[in-house]
Write a sequence for this structure.
């Protein structure tokens, strides 16, 4: 049975993997491609990038380990599919910052509304 401390550590490690996966532009582009075009064979994904296939495979591995994509074998092809559920963790993490900035912008709006309009004449 896992202790609360071990579960927290595992959760933090999973979150670190998720954010590390999202920190790379190539991986974010792979996710965008899968979101827009749906499941893709690895060759179709590779055709969209100017890099060696082993480099792309490493990016796909990082995304798999973060739970952001899944891989399914169909004959000799490997089909990759977006798994968006882990992105809810990102949204949960960002939500307090969104509230923070919304409040700041509302405050700025109040200041701007209280300022006299410039008279062009």
């Amino acid at each position: 049975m896992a202790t609360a401390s071990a579960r927290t550590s595992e959760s933090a490690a999973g979150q670190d993997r998720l954010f590390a996966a999202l920190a790379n532009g190539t991986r974010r582009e792979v996710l965008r491609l899968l979101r827009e075009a749906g499941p893709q064979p690895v060759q179709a994904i590779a055709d969209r990038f100017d890099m060696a296939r082993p480099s792309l495979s490493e990016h796909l591995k990082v995304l798999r380990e973060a739970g952001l994509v899944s891989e399914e074998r169909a004959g000799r092809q490997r089909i990759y599919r977006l798994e968006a559920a882990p992105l809810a963790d990102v949204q949960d993490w960002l939500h307090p910052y969104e509230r923070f900035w919304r409040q700041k912008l509302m405050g700025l709006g109040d200041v701007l509304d209280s300022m006299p309009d410039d008279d062009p004449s």
